[in-house]
Design goal:
two-stranded antiparallel sheet; alpha+beta; seven-stranded mixed sheet; Glutaredoxin; globular; 11 strands; about 180 residues
């Protein structure tokens, strides 16, 4: 399992881009675009939070809205980008981004085959509930690809991966 001091695993995440343009110096077309995790995190401080699934109750009512609300505080604390990572396809993540009004605040990153969740060791098996392998609920602060803070929730809990906790950790890191 990933821990503080570890490097983010190599691989890709996808994001559904609504407007053609540039992200991370890469020309992006409308629709799903693939981003190399190492390149996308290089030289940046990123607040990453993972959750079991788009449009699920706690994720939609508390987790994502908290990061949308605290985006300004995270940026003021030195965070360059906020990534929401979920084991969903980029089309679902794009629809969820529109629903949650994350534009300009939170990048909704798809981990469609759970490759990132598996590589970090942060998987959650919901096969018995018809949802397959998903991501655990967590948050982490990443600086230049290295994990500086990590908050992993106990199953069914939402106590330590919230945006306010990561704001405080980002303030301490910025020092």
């Amino acid at each position: 399992m990933i821990k503080v001091g570890d490097k983010l695993p190599a691989g890709n995440l996808q994001e559904f881009v609504e407007v053609e343009g540039q992200i991370d110096g890469k020309s992006c077309s409308i629709g799903p675009n693939t981003f190399d995790i190492e390149k996308a995190s290089a030289g940046k401080t990123i607040a990453v939070f993972g959750l079991p699934g788009a449009f699920t109750p706690t994720c939609s009512a508390k987790h994502v809205p908290g990061y949308v609300e605290e985006a300004g505080a995270l940026k003021a604390a030195g965070v360059d980008e906020i990534w929401c990572v979920s084991v969903n396809d980029p089309f679902v993540m794009g629809a969820w981004a529109r629903d949650q009004k994350t534009a300009g605040k939170v990048r909704m990153m798809a981990d469609g085959s759970a490759d990132f969740a598996k590589a970090t060791g942060l998987t959650f098996d919901l096969t018995a509930r018809g949802m397959g392998v998903r991501s655990q609920r967590y948050s982490m602060l990443v600086k230049d690809g290295l994990v500086k803070a990590l908050n992993i929730e106990a199953p069914g809990k939402f106590e330590v991966s919230d945006a306010r906790t990561l704001v405080e950790q980002a303030r301490q890191l910025k020092g």
